From TrEMBL, chain A:
CDD domains: ABC_NrtD_SsuB_transporters. Pfam families: ABC_tran. Keywords: ATP-binding, Nucleotide-binding, Transport. It comes from Natronorubrum thiooxidans. This is NitT/TauT family transport system ATP-binding protein. Residues 2-229 form the ABC transporter domain. One of its GO terms (molecular function) is ATP binding.
Automatic annotation (TrEMBL), chain B:
Belongs to the binding-protein-dependent transport system permease family. The chain crosses the membrane at residues 12-33, 68-89, 223-244. One of its GO terms (cellular component) is plasma membrane. It is found in: Cell membrane. It comes from Natronorubrum thiooxidans. This is NitT/TauT family transport system permease protein. It is a multi-pass membrane protein. Keywords: Cell membrane, Membrane, Transmembrane, Transmembrane helix, Transport. The keyword Cell membrane applies. Residues 61-241 form the ABC transmembrane type-1 domain. CDD domains: TM_PBP2.
Amino acid sequence: MISLEDVTVAFDGFTAISNVDLRVEQGEFVTIVGPSGCGKTTLLRTIGGLEEPTSGRVRIDGRSPEAAQTNADIGFVFQQHTLFPWKSALENVTFLRKTAGNAPEADAARALLRSMGLEGFEDARPKELSGGMKQRVSIARALHLDADVLLMDEPFGELDEITRDELGVEIRDLWRRERKTVVFVTHSVPEAVFLADRCLVMCGQPGRIEATFDVDLPEPREEDVFGTRSFQEQVAQVRQTLHENYA
Amino acid sequence: MRSRHLAIVGDVVYPAVALAIGLLCWWAVAALGNVPSFVLPSPTAVGSQLLENSALYAENAIRTLEKVVYGGSVGVLAGFVLAVLVAYLPWFRTAVYPSLVAVRVLPKLAIAPLLLIYLGTGTTTAVVFIALITFFPLVLNTAAGLDRASSAHHELLRSVDAGFLERVWFVDLPYALPDVFAGLKQSVTLAVVGAVVAEWVIADDGLGFLVLIGSENVRPDVMLAALVVLLLEGIALYGGIVLAQRGVQQWLGFGSTGRR
């Protein structure tokens, strides 16, 4: 479980997020959507301990983010894949777990790559993989940590729309199987609605959570959800809230 | 496959033919052009000079190699340490980096006579001189290389509470490798140039010294023979760096194409 109490993050006279309260339950999938510069990435980085709150408190299962980092309880996926070009896909997956101080399990890593549709690419270098495949590897790398919390910062931001949709379906499916606690930042409204149990709308500046939507969509969520009336109505609602608060 | 074999054969045959034509032209000008041998000795004269005095050339080749290896090692090690300080201590970088970049335009060979005053003649002075000139390319290339990894890579490691040393070892150094080797290649080339200059100005042995003696005695055959040995030595040293780079990068898992 993730909890933020009255969190403010300021850099040299600029307040990125102000007085944010948030609770994310164990096994919940929360998306944060908002325009560029609304502080959504700062919020995610603060949860993950990459930024220090100026005031307020962040807790992950009752501990500080730093303690959670030490325990390899946080799996980050960044917008850039951050794979090491000199390592194979498999080595990239096991490397982070090793660095986190846990024994890498090559079989488990292979199985993860297989489940992400990368069977046969275990020994490929990043330059031999497409953008979508690289991002799949970096998701597998985060999962291989066995962290309870997955923090994803616009992980599909550099991919084409079709690949984004495909990966969205895969991520939601993966979450159904693994029940991680996920916080997923995006500026794509359909993506935010499709993936979420709960979708937070952020606005700036300084960044705050403007509205919360409990998403109601059938499970399992497949591609056909995109075409349903219910999905489109919820997307329209979120979009309207975003535009009403656009600074 | 067939065309590939042909391409490889071509890679060997073409340069070999070009070299043979070059030697033939040299021989033709020297032998048929009626040029006196104290102006341009024929390739065969240079060859027999080499063979007849092989001990002399081998001995002096080793003297030169010693200077290059000792001086180069000191310069490269010092350069590496300084590059690490520049890369990881911001105040040190601010203080030192501008001077390092500025000194880059100075022709380092011009320091040699100064060293002669401070340290006198001898091998030690030559070693110091070579250390000085090999130091600069390594510092600048390595410092730039250690800066190459993105902050996202560093944050990935921070997100699992990896320490500073892990970051340097697993991320920064592998990213810097191509630059370190680029620096090494420049350093080794300069080291050979530096050894020759040192042997002219400060030392009294080595292949550079043979060139000097040959010049004073109007013996171009001696000079050319020394130059041939110098050339082979330079190629061997450079080739050693290339092989080392290939080995290290293959061990790390870089593709055979080398750079990232």
